[in-house]
Amino acid sequence: MGEHIDTLLKVSRVIDPPADLRAHAYIQDYDTAYRQSIADPEKFWDSIARELEWFSPWRQVLEWNYPWAKWFVGATCNIAYNCLDRHVKSWRKNKVAIIWVGEQGEERFFTYAELFRQVNQCANALKALGLRQGDRVTIYLPKIPEQIIAMLACARLGLIHSVVYSGFSAPALRSRIQDAEARLIITADVGYDRGKVIPLKPVVDEAIVQCPTIEKTVVVRREHPGMALSAPNEIDWTDWLADQSAHCDPVPVDAETPLYILYTSGTTGKPKGVVHVHGGYMVGTYITTKYVFDLKDEDVYFCVADPGWVTGHSYIVYGPLLNGATILTAEGKPDYPNPGRWWNLIARYGVSIFYTTPTAIRLLMKYGEDWPRRYDLSSLRILGSVGEPINPEAWEWFHRVTGGTHPIMDTWWQTETGMIMVTPLPCVPLKPGSATKPFLGVEADVVDREGHSVGTGGGFAVIKKPWPAMMRTIYKDPDRYLTYWNTIPNCYTAGDICHKDQDGYFWFMGRADDVVKVAGNRIGTAEVESALVSHEAVVEAAVIGKPHKTAGEMIKAFVILAQGYQESPELLNDLKAHVLKQLGKIAVPQEIEVVTALPKTRSGKIMRRVLKAKELGQDPGDISTLEE
Ligand code: WTA
After folding, report:
1. I need a surface site. Which of 23, 143, 175, 255 has the fewest CB within 10 A?
2. Nearby residues of 243 by Cβ (< 8 Å), 6 or more positions away
3. CA 407 to ligand 1 center in whole angstroms
4. Does residue 174 lie within any of the structural domains?
5. Domain for residue 538, yes or no?
6. Residue 384 lies in a domain
7. What are residue 269's phi and psi, to 5 degrees?
């Protein structure tokens, strides 16, 4: 990995931002703006927060009791109010907020006024079920506008939403509902995937059998005729909203009130519920969307994420709506019904900002340049990438086929950080493959294990000061929150390996822990291992990430079989089907190898690092703790 990065640094070219873009950008001189922001971060964040509306002001910008932060102390606000009411009161009332395109080619438009109306109706419907501030609502929906409406309606009332990606299977959904102790689940009859119908409601039915806290299930029915629902516990979405008034006062909440829980993978088998709050998260997502993408009222902003993941929360829903943007969101895969899908949407809706992922770019690369060339992409002006390191080949391809001049914002951040942390701004010279420099007000660095800055060189990515959109805790597990702050002294440890070059540019190189990034999705090796050992044929399992041409990484599992089981193609397929059933498609190992022993430390911990080095033909490094 080290050698690879060295060659990268040598070959990399520096690309200056287009002069006209820079001349009209919010931030035209990064170095000065960064220096000022970091000289007094609280002053910087205070001034940004004033661009939004608060019901009552803060006494103090930050209260910092390492590692517990409170931002905008004493203030009251509501993020949904800032996403909607603020615009509905202005000329933006009839501006298009959301353009939604379904997998079957359906098209729906929501102006700010229309979105406001439906969110209010949904909020009243939630109230009618007796839900109160602080209650949790699980949202298990495909990528349809109701997902966004439900999130905003919860926020409006101070309910906590927990969006679960609709590709997760019943056991994975169940554990997330149980941890959150949700009272309500909102789902759909089906989702669509490459033209195939994917039933969702049956997954919910299976999941909630063991979820006593769930009182009702609301179902968005997409198929005709609609599936039968059993009253009174199953409610049709349309009926649910039908008689509700389009007026619902927003609940002013304390700035530190939880907005959502989003479950993400870590180093143990149990997913962690990352908690974000109204006030600080609102300020962080608002300003990063505005400055990183130089978002203006004339823009059409297209982010390909799913609100089931954090990118969807921060950069489809909250950040862009806080800015009063016109957002394009599309259900489905980039190559269905053909590989021109996204290029076609860009041409058709005049997209000017296009935020996508390295894995999607690599997929589209496979289909060749003819596809993008067929469409008029002249509306584009700024591009973005997120989720994993973007390799320079993919970077160059993306840059070239979109016109050869638009800067690519390679944004590095995490579910836990809530907002983009290391990223170019449109005025920053780019190096393909580097996320460049920290965002304003963010003190990011690369350090050794003791927390000493490496200056130039490789080490661990850390954040040295609190930032407003940081997670506040891990739901019901504060000890797990502490691990982020006590791994390396006086820093938030991101878990990423990073290299800083002589110009201070950050080159993120992947995870330092047992997290695999498959097509940008974060999967804990421990989760896949525990799914495997829950199969009767497996006594022990170890999972590693292995480089993969399009997905970035793929999952490889090593398993030890129980007595009486023989390796066979049927058995291996059965194991894959088992993981599919336990966790969902994204977690299924592409390769499974049967072994008779696994490398372990003397204390019995599996050394995945050694397995990985062996698999990739690399030097395993220090193996002094290896048992045999
Ligand atoms: C990785 C996604 C390199 C990183 C927003 C991080 C990246 C993890 C980048 C968080 C990037 C995200 N360059 N690596 N631009 N963006 N990562 O929580 O390893 O799903 O720790 O959040 O993705 O994944 P998560």
Report:
1. 23
2. none
3. 20
4. no
5. yes
6. no
7. -70, -20
Strands 300-303 and 326-330: parallel
Show the domain range for 537: 513-615
Residue 2 has pLDDT above 80, yes or no: no
Nearest to 626 by CA among 608, 605, 607, 601: 601
CB 420 within 8 A of CB 412: yes
Is-contact 107 147, C-beta < 8 A? no
The CB of 306 under 6 Å from ligand 1? The reply is: no
Cα–Cα distance between 338 and 508 in angstroms, integer? 32
pLDDT of 597 over the 60 cut: yes
**DSSP output for 485-516:** HHSSTTSEEEEEEEEE-TT--EEEEEESSSEE
Closest ligand 1 atom to Cα of 410: 15
- Separation of 508 CA from ligand 1 center, angstroms? 9
Instruction: Indicate whether residue 162 lines ligand 1 (CB < 6 A).
Output: no
- Tens digits of residue pLDDT in 128-169: 999 999 999 999 999 999 999 999 999 999 999 999 999 999
Strands 76-77, 96-101: pairing is: unpaired
pLDDT above 70 for 467: yes
Q: What is the CATH number of the domain that holds 518?
A: 3.30.300.30
Amino acid residing at 614: K
Is there a domain that residue 541 lies in? yes
Give the DSSP letter of residue 8. H
**378, containing H or E segment:** none
- Specify the number of domains making up the chain: 1
CA pair distance 117, 247, nearest whole angstrom: 7
pTM of the model: 0.95
**Could you tell me the pLDDT band of residue 596, with boundaries at 50, 70 and 90?**
very high
Q: Give backbone dihedrals phi and psi of 54, rounded to 5 degrees, phi first.
A: -125, 145
The model's pLDDT over 300-333, given as tens digits with 9 standing for 90+, comes to 999 999 989 999 999 999 999 999 999 999 999 9
Q: Report which residue type is found at 446.
A: V
